[in-house]
């Protein structure tokens, strides 16, 4: 799977949790929770939605490294085969 497809899945999952965001205005290298102002529950819902749409299990131990759209794409790429 290519990065553009993975990025779109990340953004779609994000839009499902925060429909007010405008993906074209997101800086993909910046901390996502600050860019979108997600609280803890929104963050967990986002990761759950991402899990359901990609089939990738994201263990809680990995949450800290998933701080931006770019980091999520890099994390998901090898796991989506």
TrEMBL record:
One Pfam assignment: PP-binding
Domain Carrier residue range list: 4-80
InterPro entries named in the record: ACP-like_sf, PP-bd_ACP
Gene3D superfamilies registered for this protein in UniProt: ACP-like (1.10.1200.10)
Domain of life: Bacteria
Entry protein name: Acyl carrier protein
Organism: Metapseudomonas boanensis
